[in-house]
């Protein structure tokens, strides 16, 4: 510390000789020893210089390892399985998924949500939706269940590491829910209910859905994918719809299968920005 102070003192008095010519006849040493106690100019100037120097210590120093923005898992295309990224959830909520950043010693993830008010053509205020401690997370995912059909929700996420550093916000993603097909109107729908001989899955509804396509998913009882097909609705005002399981799709006699109906709309880059998922129905298959 003594060496630092001496260096500051010498630099200070050298500067004084340049900016104050009337004191140029003084040497640094004479100023320091004979004039310092009498001069009313040098004391406040030196004090100010030291204050400025030490007040800036540790400030405005760029973090050598800044916390990078969190990345959302890319939204999967309708035909892909398993599904990834933001999506409707069978619980009636909106599913969110992001990339794990364990190597950055992240302690907390904070998810923020904003609502788009279509009638007012305006965006609401971003509010903290979830404060998630990594010790309570098994997977990097969250389901927003405080949502309603027909409202557009926008999300971004930030991370906080062990030192308290906050990452910059992630990209913003969005999703809105469509009315889901109800389980009680799906046929067949029971572990003991046999798939009809015509191999048709059917469902009905009595309300309008602003959808562009259906996605039918069939899984085995062990959750192995049997089929996932996309097709265009026959009508949009409420009626009975059906989809036939193609003959080339092999089903094992005596086995139980699960199936689900998804609806989607507002596709950008092949992925939907609006949708819904029914709960899982089931049936048993017997060959002829």
Task: Provide a descriptive summary of the structure in words.
The protein has 288 residues and is of the alpha+beta class. Strands 3, 4, 5, 7, 8, 11, 12, 14, 15 and 16 form a ten-stranded mixed beta sheet that branches. The longest helix is centred in the first third of the chain and has 18 residues. The chain is globular.
Name the descriptors.
alpha+beta; 16 strands; three-stranded antiparallel β-sheet; 288 residues; disordered N terminus; ten-stranded mixed β-sheet
Count of alpha/pi helices:
3
Report the order of strands and helices.
HHHEEEEEEEEEEEEEEEE
Evaluate the radius of gyration.
Answer: 34 Å
Shape type: globular
Major sheet: size, sense and barrel closure? 10 strands, mixed
Unreliable runs, pLDDT <50, ≥5 residues? 1-9, 11-39, 52-56
Mean pLDDT, rounded to whole units? 83
Give the strand tally: 16
> Strand fraction band?
25-35%
Q: Give the helix level as a range of percent.
A: 10-25%
Oligomer: single chain
Distance between the termini: 93 Å
Judged by helices, strands and strand pairing, the structural class is alpha+beta
């Amino acid at each position: 510390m003594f060496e630092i102070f001496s260096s500051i003192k010498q630099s200070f008095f050298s500067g004084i000789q340049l900016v104050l010519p009337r004191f140029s006849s003084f040497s640094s040493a004479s100023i320091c020893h004979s004039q310092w106690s009498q001069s009313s100019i040098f004391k406040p100037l030196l004090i100010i210089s030291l204050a400025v120097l030490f007040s800036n210590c540790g400030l405005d120093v760029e973090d050598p390892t800044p916390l990078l923005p969190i990345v959302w898992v890319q939204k999967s295309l309708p035909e892909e399985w398993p599904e990834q990224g933001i999506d409707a959830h069978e619980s009636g909520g909106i599913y969110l998924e992001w990339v794990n950043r364990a190597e950055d010693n992240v302690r907390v993830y904070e998810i923020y949500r904003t609502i788009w008010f279509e009638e007012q053509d305006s965006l609401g205020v971003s509010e903290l939706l979830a404060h998630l401690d990594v010790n309570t997370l098994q997977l990097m995912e969250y389901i927003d269940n405080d949502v309603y059909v027909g409202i557009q929700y926008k999300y971004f996420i930030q991370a906080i590491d062990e030192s308290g550093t906050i990452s910059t916000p992630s990209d913003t993603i969005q999703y809105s829910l469509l009315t889901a097909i109800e389980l009680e109107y799906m046929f067949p729908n029971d572990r003991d209910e046999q798939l009809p001989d015509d191999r048709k899955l059917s469902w009905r509804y009595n309300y309008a859905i602003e959808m562009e396509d259906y996605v039918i998913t069939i899984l085995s009882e062990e959750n192995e994918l049997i089929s996932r097909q996309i097709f265009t609705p026959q009508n949009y005002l409420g009626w009975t719809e059906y989809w036939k399981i193609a003959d080339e799709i092999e089903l094992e006699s005596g086995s139980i299968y699960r199936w689900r109906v998804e609806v989607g709309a507002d596709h950008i880059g092949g992925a939907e920005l609006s949708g819904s998922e029914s709960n899982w129905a089931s049936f048993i298959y017997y060959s002829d």
